[in-house]
């Protein structure tokens, strides 16, 4: 079923702000109609939570600091089933703890938003320093088959926009949605322009209809809330259209899992977002997301000034991955380079999609991606001979 | 805005972009100063980005903030080679002065930094701590410093800086911060 879409005046006064990425995400949440936040403080996402506390006092909503991240995600699932637009903010180690709940939310088709301000890992790693090593954790962290949606903002404006979009996509498809930012964006201060109005998509509703299966082609069933008078049964075990446990029925299981995966994969062309910079004639193509894409764009601009045909493909949704668009952008490229703040996670995805080797440029030193890292990495590629061609 | 008293580095003319680094130690309001400068740039209609060192820093240990101001979109928002270094500690000065862009400028606190002889960059001493102490609050030396730097370089109109300071100051500190702005601006004439 399709979501209902409304356009409302922004509760955050429209205008220009000079904000941290973390703070802009909190304001985006309020603009998106978030009215429940359960969280546990963690660097570098704490500023987001602090801002949410103030904003919810101002605009209404429930804030709970839970005993840990497992409690946070569980509280969000409960709140979402009570009709709330629920969110939390965390970082890699906190997300690791939440994964059981993420799987449960995927299985029960519970809309919720997790803002992941990524830091250098693994494990507790370097708490105050950036990384982008959660590429696979957000998609494959919990066991078995399910799909999620993940957005990777590269600016303060975009983390605000993405937080709103994450709520909308999450409600429309009934999946957990991630804002997969990194510390370099979370702790960056830039201009945020808050618009006059914001779009809010609401989960599909059809009173009396079963909440866990549908014949609609999009595979998204309507979602009632507790308290609306329906008999509701929510379980992480395999269940039928009405939520009754069917742990021995292979057909029900097959149909359920197919739908959990298929409702996102079939809609991938509608969900995926990307941006391209000078890719039309690019011989040297960079694929980068989040903060790394800012460094890559800086290099692309300088290479263009020197006459090198360089371009940038930026996945805006990391999941679903913009496969078709990447294939098109990479068609004329001789070399493909993937700079990222991990040891080549998206590189694997790019290779899988393009069926060709690409140059990985990992920077794993707890620093934001530097243009110098990219310049060093492309020394081996014969950029110089292409200057002026 | 009057004429700039200091030379604008070649890189800033080439890129229409200023890279500014403010360094000092925790408790001096280095981050406040960075945010103020960025916010003032934004209020003046420029693109602005501010980043900071987020370490295990505490009161008294080294910290710095970077600000990039530009008339165009800023692809890479961190400071690489500052056109302007504002030094509020000797350790920060020693660490960052080698990274200053050729033709760039260093503005340092006269009471806290002993400068070295360096070819190719301009160095200006500002009595920020002294002025702040005179105003009765050492803690506003950061605002004096920003105000003096803005006045001396002419990067941002005074009105935009004042507007940014009014937005950013906690109300209890607004008056004293505005006094600091005045004191810093006067250093243009000294």
Keywords:
heterodimer; A: 389 residues; alpha/beta; Rossmann fold; eight-stranded mixed beta sheet; five-stranded mixed beta sheet; 13 helices; B: 190 residues; Pyruvate-ferredoxin Oxidoreductase, domain 3; six-stranded mixed beta sheet; 7 helices; 6 strands; 37% helix; 20% strand; disordered N terminus
Report on this model:
The complex is a heterodimer of chains A (389) and B (190). With 389 residues, chain A is an alpha/beta fold. Chain A folds into two domains: 4-202, 3-Layer(aba) Sandwich (Rossmann fold), CATH 3.40.50.970; 275-386, Rossmann fold (3-Layer(aba) Sandwich). Chain A has 13 helices and 17 strands. In chain A, the strands form four sheets. In chain A, strands 3, 4, 5, 6, 7, 8, 9 and 15 form an eight-stranded mixed beta sheet that branches. In chain A, α1 runs parallel beside α2 and α1 runs parallel beside α6. Chain A is globular, with a radius of gyration of 21 Å. The mean pLDDT of chain A is 96. Chain B is an alpha/beta fold. Chain B has a single domain (10-186), classed as 3-Layer(aba) Sandwich (Pyruvate-ferredoxin Oxidoreductase, domain 3). Chain B contains seven helices and six strands; from the N terminus they run αβαβββαββαααα. Chain B has helices at residues 10-14, 30-43, 90-96, 128-134, 141-153, 158-168, 174-186, and strands spanning 17-25, 47-52, 62-70, 84-87, 105-109, 122-126. In chain B, strands 2-3-1-4-5-6 form a six-stranded mixed beta sheet, sandwiched between helices. In chain B, α2 packs parallel to α5 (141-153), α2 (30-43) packs across α6 (158-168) and α6 (158-168) runs antiparallel to α7 (174-186). Chain B is globular and about 40 Å long. In chain B, 51% of the residues are buried. Mean pLDDT of chain B is 90; it is low at 1-14. Classes of the chains: A alpha/beta (389), B alpha/beta (190). The interface between A and B is medium-sized, with 20 and 19 residues. β10 (189-194) of chain A pairs antiparallel with β2 of chain B, so a sheet runs across the interface.
């Amino acid at each position: 079923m399709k979501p209902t879409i409304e356009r409302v005046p922004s509760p955050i006064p429209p205008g220009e702000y000079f904000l941290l990425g973390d703070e802009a995400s909190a304001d985006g949440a309020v603009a998106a109609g978030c009215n429940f936040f359960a969280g546990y403080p963690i660097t570098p996402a704490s500023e987001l939570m602090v801002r949410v506390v103030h904003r919810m006092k101002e605009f209404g909503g429930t804030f709970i600091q839970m005993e840990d991240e497992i409690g946070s995600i569980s509280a969000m699932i409960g709140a979402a089933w009570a009709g709330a637009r629920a969110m939390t903010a965390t970082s890699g180690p906190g997300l690791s703890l939440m994964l059981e709940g993420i799987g449960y939310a995927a299985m029960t088709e519970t809309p919720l938003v997790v803002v992941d301000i990524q830091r250098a890992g693994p494990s507790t790693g370097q708490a105050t320093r950036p990384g982008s090593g959660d590429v696979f954790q957000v998609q494959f962290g919990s066991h078995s088959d399910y799909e999620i949606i993940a957005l990777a903002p590269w600016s303060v404006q975009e983390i605000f926009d993405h937080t709103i979009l994450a709520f909308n996509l999450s409600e429309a498809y009934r999946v957990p949605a991630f804002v997969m930012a990194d510390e370099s964006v979370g702790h960056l201060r830039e201009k945020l322009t808050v618009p006059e109005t914001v779009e809010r998509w609401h989960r599909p509703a059809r009173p009396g209809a079963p909440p866990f299966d549908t014949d609609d082609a999009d595979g998204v069933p309507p979602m009632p809330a507790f308290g609306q008078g329906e008999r509701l049964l929510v379980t992480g075990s395999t269940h039928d259209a009405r939520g009754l446990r069917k742990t021995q029925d292979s057909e029900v299981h097959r149909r359920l899992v197919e739908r959990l995966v298929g409702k996102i994969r079939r809609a991938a062309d509608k969900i995926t977002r990307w941006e391209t910079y000078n890719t039309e004639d690019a011989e040297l193509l960079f694929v980068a997301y989040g903060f790394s894409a800012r460094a890559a764009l800086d290099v692309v601009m300088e290479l263009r000034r020197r006459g090198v045909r360089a371009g940038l493909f930026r996945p805006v949704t990391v999941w679903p991955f913009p496969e078709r668009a990447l294939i098109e952008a990479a068609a004329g490229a001789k070399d493909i380079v993937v700079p990222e703040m991990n040891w080549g996670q998206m590189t694997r995805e790019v290779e899988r999609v393009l069926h060709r080797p690409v140059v990985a440029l990992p920077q794993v030193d707890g620093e934001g991606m530097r243009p110098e890292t990219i310049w060093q990495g492309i020394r081996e590629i014969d950029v110089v001979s292409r200057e002026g061609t | 805005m009057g004429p700039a008293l200091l030379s604008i580095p070649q890189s800033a003319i080439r890129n229409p972009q200023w890279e500014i680094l403010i360094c000092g130690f925790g408790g001096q309001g280095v981050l406040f100063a960075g945010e103020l400068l960025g916010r003032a740039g934004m209020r003046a209609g420029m693109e602005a980005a501010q980043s900071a060192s987020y370490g295990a820093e505490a009161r008294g240990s080294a910290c710095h903030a970077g600000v990039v101001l530009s008339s165009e979109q800023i692809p890479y928002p961190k400071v690489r080679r500052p056109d302007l270094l504002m030094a509020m500690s000797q350790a920060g000065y020693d660490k960052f002065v080698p990274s200053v862009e050729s033709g760039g400028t260093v503005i340092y606190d006269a009471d806290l930094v002993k400068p070295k002889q360096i070819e190719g960059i301009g160095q200006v001493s500002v009595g920020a701590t002294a002025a702040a102490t005179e105003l009765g609050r050492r803690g506003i030396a950061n605002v004096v410093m920003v105000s003096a730097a803005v006045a001396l370089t002419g990067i941002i109109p005074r009105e935009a800086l004042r507007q940014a300071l009014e937005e950013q100051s906690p109300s209890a500190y607004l008056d004293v911060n505005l006094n600091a702005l005045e004191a810093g601006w006067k250093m243009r004439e000294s």
